[in-house]
């Protein structure tokens, strides 16, 4: 059976850049004035700048909008990013690609609407009427892997088709009037972004891999690597229900509410070595054989602990740290931002491997093995 090949990748983000220190000084300092360690939390987050649909310095100055306004903003910005990313991958793929797209899979955990945004985008881009669509909601930071696995299944069933697969998250619309250390951590970390892949089988080598980072203001840059795209060799999933309490995401009257235990990095550190072994063993590989790593930056401690347990070098952790610094944690879109960074900045050599991983409620651990 042919493996799934990445033919094009685009990322997008809202136009507003929010420097972390400015956001703290102008908004969060007052918001968390009763939280003793608030400034330390923001300074230690690893985030320097985020792209945010709702700039907290202005969006919440007059209070906290109701859930209806938040969902309207989610849909508006999800579609804006989707137009950039879907249009970008179809343009990169060239003539004939649009007609070959047989499946369209997207995920988001920061909003809901019906018709779902994939229907709107499919109509706007003139995709096939018999298009198979899947919208994956509420699965958290690991949802890009659910998108990928659905896309892999589609290609296995119909190898002559192409699949659009991506995510879009608008985390900034969910700030809450809750002045606790836990919510300070959430508000210090999360940003907004979207990403889209075009996937085909490994026979689709006539389309060069093309990666690009873009924003809704046309300020993005990017380069193609001039050769066939990387291949997804396999995925591995594990859920640890004994840690169900460690991370949650619920809809409440005013907004969505996230809980995030400070023990999450410790849980992951204890599980990460056997988890990676189970991903790699079927392919005859070990952690030492992997050149490139994409570790979902749920926070700086997760990067630190996973890196230490797997004996990863600073260079191998650099893509995760760079995305955290420049974008924040963008939930399900983050791992695709990291893959884009690896392709553009690390410039993998043919034959090198990468492991991508992300973590979400459950606790759920997701991973994928990539060969360049």
From TrEMBL:
Keywords: Transferase. The keyword Transferase applies. InterPro entries: Chalcone/stilbene_synt_C (IPR012328), Chalcone/stilbene_synt_N (IPR001099), Polyketide_synthase_type-III (IPR011141), Thiolase-like (IPR016039). Residues 203-217 have a biased composition (Acidic residues). It holds the Pfam family Chal_sti_synt_C. Residues 4-202 form the Chalcone/stilbene synthase N-terminal domain. Residues 202-237 are annotated as: Disordered. Residues 240-371 form the Chalcone/stilbene synthase C-terminal domain. PANTHER family: HYDROXYMETHYLGLUTARYL-COA SYNTHASE, TYPE III POLYKETIDE SYNTHASE A. Belongs to the thiolase-like superfamily. Chalcone/stilbene synthases family. This is Stilbene synthase.
């Amino acid at each position: 059976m042919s493996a799934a090949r990445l033919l094009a990748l685009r990322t997008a983000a809202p136009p507003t850049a929010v420097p972390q220190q400015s956001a703290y000084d102008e908004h969060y300092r007052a918001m968390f004035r009763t939280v003793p360690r608030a400034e330390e939390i923001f300074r230690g987050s690893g985030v320097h700048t985020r792209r945010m649909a709702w700039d907290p310095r202005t969006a919440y100055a007059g209070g906290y909008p109701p859930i209806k306004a938040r969902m309207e903003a989610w849909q508006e910005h999800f579609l804006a990013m989707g137009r950039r990313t879907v249009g970008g991958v179809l343009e990169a793929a060239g003539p004939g690609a649009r007609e070959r797209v047989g499946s369209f899979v997207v995920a988001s955990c920061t909003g809901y609407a019906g018709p779902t945004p994939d229907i709107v985008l499919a109509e706007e881009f003139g995709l096939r009427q018999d298009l198979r669509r899947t919208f994956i909601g509420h699965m958290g930071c690991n949802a890009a892997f659910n998108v990928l696995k659905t896309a892999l299944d589609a290609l296995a069933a119909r190898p002559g088709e192409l699949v659009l697969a991506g995510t879009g998250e608008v985390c900034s619309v969910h700030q809450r009037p809750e002045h606790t250390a836990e919510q300070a951590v959430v508000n210090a970390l999360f940003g907004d972004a979207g990403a889209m892949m075009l996937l085909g089988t490994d026979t689709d080598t006539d389309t060069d891999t093309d990666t690009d980072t873009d924003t809704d203001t046309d300020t993005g840059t990017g380069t193609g690597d001039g050769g066939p795209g990387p291949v997804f060799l396999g995925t591995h999933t594990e859920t640890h229900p004994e840690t169900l309490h460690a991370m949650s995401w619920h809809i409440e009257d005013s907004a969505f509410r996230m809980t995030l235990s400070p023990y999450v990095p410790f849980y992951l550190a204890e599980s990460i070595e056997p988890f990676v072994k189970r991903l790699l063993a079927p392919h005859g590989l070990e952690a030492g054989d992997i050149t490139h790593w994409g570790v979902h930056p749920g926070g700086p401690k997760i990067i630190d602990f996973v890196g230490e347990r797997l004996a990863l070098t600073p260079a191998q952790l650099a893509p995760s740290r760079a995305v955290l610094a420049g974008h924040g944690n963008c939930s399900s879109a983050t791992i695709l931002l990291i893959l884009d960074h690896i392709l553009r900045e690390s410039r993998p050599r043919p034959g090198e491997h990468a492991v991508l991983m992300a973590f979400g409620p459950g606790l759920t651990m997701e991973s994928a093995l990539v060969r360049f």
